[in-house]
């Protein structure tokens, strides 16, 4: 029998499992509203000790109110687990990347890029750096919001300003590299304290990987983890492979990385300039005929131009042109089908 959380949310299917806990689909038993539950185990003898999900709940409260951040409906302890009740989202960008067989079209990547940059800028404007920018941590909305990108997973997020003094955190070296190393900035490999510049460089790496399928340092062979991280750092620094990757990407990506890497630790990135780079690509490609602003753009700069219909093209390898929304619908249908097959097989995928 599926579990009921907080006496209100009936779990239905497992959506994912990560380092901090499980994510399950559920619905509110009175209203029928679909939600996603993220639960992490709290220590039995010390239920008040911090667990990652509880920490995330605090970050969600700092980021509350932006439509590109999933709303948190309830959070609290339930049978020894700390549970976050979040707005239900669709496929994450890694899943869409796989569905498109490793290569999302240029136009799609640029349009996703604008929204992703806006979400990261919003987190920064609330004093938070994310430190784990990766495709899995951006997901599309569902239904009416299936063309909007959401930012999620704040387990490694951190305040970069002291809330009482407003001072920036101090620069330090010798830090343990945190985050997902394929996408992390060059500085992270060097053990430097992360700041806003590192989130933006990681975002650049994510966009390149969505564009090209793989990043050159994902294919390296090294005898151990240390050697692999060292080699990755060398490649990110100034390797021919990285230069080649930029050479076969829109020229604006080179300016993007130059800007991120020229920033001093405490320096505020020029988000407007980075957004302008995406607009430049759109203009050059003639994607700006009918324009409007990103309706979810909570940032200060309203200069982003996106096509009116705002439909993201996705070209399957077969050559069909379809919209990202169709892909998401297909993804959701597949997920539902898989979970019903599992249930018929007698093994419930629901925790407990
Ligand atoms: N609100 C949501 N709605 C739908 N799916 C979600 C939601 N939140 C998370 N997921 C799915 O679950 C996956 C894992 O979620 P999340 O990244 O929050 O967990 P995590 O434990 O921090 O993972 P990791 O250890 O990989 O960082 C996401 O990539 C996403 O596909």
TrEMBL record:
Every Protein kinase domain range: 9-282
Pfam families: Pkinase
Annotated GO MF terms: ATP binding; protein kinase activity
Highest taxon listed in the record's lineage: Eukaryota
Ligand binding (ATP): 38
Stored InterPro entries: CK1_Ser-Thr_kinase, Kinase-like_dom_sf, Prot_kinase_dom, Protein_kinase_ATP_BS
Keywords: ATP-binding, Kinase, Nucleotide-binding, Transferase
Protein name, as recorded: Kinase-like protein
Annotated organism of origin: Suillus plorans
Lineage: Eukaryota, Fungi, Dikarya, Basidiomycota, Agaricomycotina
């Amino acid at each position: 029998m599926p579990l009921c959380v907080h006496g209100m949310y009936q779990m239905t299917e497992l959506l994912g499992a990560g380092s901090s806990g499980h994510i399950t689909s559920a619905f509110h038993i009175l209203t029928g509203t679909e939600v996603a539950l993220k639960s992490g185990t709290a220590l039995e003898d010390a239920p008040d000790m911090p667990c990652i999900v509880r920490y995330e709940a605090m970050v969600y409260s700092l980021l509350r109110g932006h439509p590109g951040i999933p709303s948190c409906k309830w959070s609290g302890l339930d049978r020894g687990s700390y549970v976050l009740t979040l707005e239900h989202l669709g496929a994450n960008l890694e899943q869409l990347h796989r569905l498109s067989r490793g290569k999302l079209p240029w136009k799609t990547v640029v349009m996703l890029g604008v929204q992703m940059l806006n979400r990261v800028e919003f987190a920064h404007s609330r004093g938070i750096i994310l430190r784990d920018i990766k495709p899995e941590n951006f997901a599309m909305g569902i239904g009416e919001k299936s063309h909007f990108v959401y930012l999620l997973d704040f387990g490694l997020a951190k305040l970069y300003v002291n809330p009482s003094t407003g001072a920036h955190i101090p620069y330090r070296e010798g830090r343990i590299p945190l985050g997902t190393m394929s996408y992390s900035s060059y500085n992270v490999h060097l053990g430097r304290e992360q700041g806003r510049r590192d989130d933006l460089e990681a975002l650049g790496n994510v966009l390149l990987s969505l564009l090209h399928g793989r990043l050159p340092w994902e294919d390296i062979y090294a005898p151990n983890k240390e050697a692999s991280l060292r080699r990755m750092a060398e490649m990110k620094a100034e390797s021919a492979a990285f230069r080649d990757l930029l050479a076969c990407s829109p020229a604006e990506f080179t300016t993007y990385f130059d800007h991120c890497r020229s920033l001093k630790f405490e320096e505020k990135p020029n988000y407007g300039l980075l957004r302008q780079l995406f607009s430049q690509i759109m203009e050059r490609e003639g994607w700006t005929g009918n324009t409007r602003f990103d309706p979810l753009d909570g940032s200060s700069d309203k200069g982003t131009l996106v096509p009116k219909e705002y439909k993201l093209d996705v070209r399957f390898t077969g050559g069909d042109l379809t919209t990202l929304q169709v892909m998401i619908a297909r993804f959701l249908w597949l997920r539902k089908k898989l979970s019903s097959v599992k249930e018929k097989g007698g093994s419930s995928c629901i925790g407990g």
